[in-house]
Write a structure and sequence with these properties.
The structure is a homodimer. The first copy, chain A, contains eleven helices and four strands; from the N terminus they run E-H-E-H-E-E-H-H-H-H-H-H-H-H-H. Chain A folds into two domains: 80 residues, Glutaredoxin; 134 residues, Glutathione S-transferase Yfyf (Class Pi), Chain A, domain 2 (Up-down Bundle). Chain A is α+β, with helices and mostly antiparallel strands. In chain A, helix 1 runs parallel beside helix 3, helix 1 packs across helix 10 and helix 4 runs parallel beside helix 10. A four-stranded mixed β-sheet of chain A has the order 2-1-3-4, with helices on one face.
Chain lengths: 269, 269
């Protein structure tokens, strides 16, 4: 059992102190969901191996009463297995499988384009000692050697193209209060992490003021005493559309794409 | 309790007697999953109101000891609620929410393009008395007045474009035996229904012989004594690719798009 109900978490932070990594974000929510206090070990992109005493080159890691657990997904499974009497993060294997599908979809649909719209902000907001590493690694590993400045340039033209592609996710949230049902679970934290990452780096907003996702996002950022409300975060809302930009979302009732429920023939009443 | 362990199901069939409707397909699997025998009321697209005594204009409907239940999703929820001691179709609210998301994705990704590739087969395979209705309703409701022949024409050029788009679904099935985990549940039946529909109408195959989806599809079609193996069904496998067609799927290990698990720094061992 965690001493003093506290678990140590190795963070990945920007210069403001706010978490950037979506994997750390979902782990923070998971620890709070299980009712733990969090002892944060601060730090940025570089020096992880030194901070963790050679245990890991990546974060998040947690230490629970001396026991190290690496990898956000493994940590979530560990928490449910070790503490089954506390609220569960996972509902079962079917939810786990489909959450991986939803996650992949959100990464491809939201993070992939936004990464290219915010990569210079991401660099500029990182800790000064991380700048060289962030630039070199991102340009080499994710951007085929293109310069951060060149990748981010022209984002005003690309940002308005992303909100319409999120429509299937909006539809999902029209049908349920949380992805977990009446209360949030790891599906919410994992999906919120995509937007928490975005809010940590987005110097200009990616979504319009009236995006229907706002209700779920605001409720999610407010959880656990405003866990997602670090002063270093940026607002997600306020994207200004220009003449010719596509409609950012389908108006309520206009484009429901699930089959209506069969309530029987009118004549049968 | 269902008399003689049997529940009546109103079917939607082609001339061969095989089920076409994906909603009926998933209901058939749901009834078998709950251990019931099925008393099929046969029939095609027309005359549903007459067959059901004015109860419904759509199928599936079930009758359980005189109690009518309409709509495939409502039926599945009814079966779990009424028979909680039998194997559950749903794991919980989170799995339900994400299944709706996966379903919408499969409809948009697979059924939408395949509908336009097989719509004339669909018509030709339907019961003779349904031909006029199928043609008129599909052309008017789904095809903006275009003729079935014109919509299906050129499918040789369009069919090879679909398999690559199914990659996220393949990835999901690389990570789990069934969408339900170790055993199938309603998530499998709902996703299988998309391919059962396709196999009911596809006079030429939509997937290549070696598609990695084949393992899950074959296991799914074989369930419950080969429920998906009606002689009226067509094979899904055998799509021939031509010079210039895209790769139909990502080779195992080449394109895994989920994050690898953090097993710690090599130096820490």
């Amino acid at each position: 059992m965690a001493a003093n109900n506290t678990i140590t978490l190795y963070d990945l932070q920007l210069a403001s102190g706010c978490t950037i990594s979506p994997f750390v974000w979902r782990t923070k929510y998971a620890l709070k969901h299980k009712g733990f206090d969090i002892d944060i070990v601060p730090g940025g992109f570089t020096g992880i191996k030194e901070r963790t005493g050679g245990r890991s080159e990546r974060v998040p890691c947690i230490v629970d009463d001396g026991h190290w657990v690496l990898d956000s997904w493994v940590i979530a499974e560990y928490l449910d297995e070790k503490y089954p009497d506390r609220p569960m993060l996972f509902e079962g294997p079917s939810m786990k499988a489909m959450l991986r599908f939803l996650d992949s979809w959100l990464w491809a649909t939201a993070i992939r384009p936004w990464f290219q719209c915010y990569i210079l902000d991401y660099h500029d907001l990182s800790l000064p000692q991380d700048h060289a590493y962030v630039r070199e690694s991102r340009e080499r590993m994710f951007l085929q050697g293109r310069k951060l400045e060149d990748v981010q340039a022209g984002r005003e033209d690309r940002l308005p193209l992303v909100p319409p592609t999120l429509e299937p996710f909006r539809q999902l949230l029209r049908e349920t209060k949380w992805l977990g049902g009446e209360t949030p679970n790891y599906a919410d934290y994992s999906a919120l992490a995509v937007f928490l990452w975005t809010a940590s780096v987005a110097k200009i907003p990616p979504l319009t003021e009236d995006d229907p996702l706002r209700d779920w996002l605001d409720r999610g950022f407010d959880l656990y005493g405003g866990l997602g409300r670090h002063p270093g975060m940026h607002t997600l809302f306020g994207l200004k559309l220009r003449e010719g930009d596509p409609e950012p979302f389908v108006k309520e009732g206009a484009g429901l794409n699930t089959a209506p429920v069969n309530k029987g023939a009118p004549a049968a009443r």
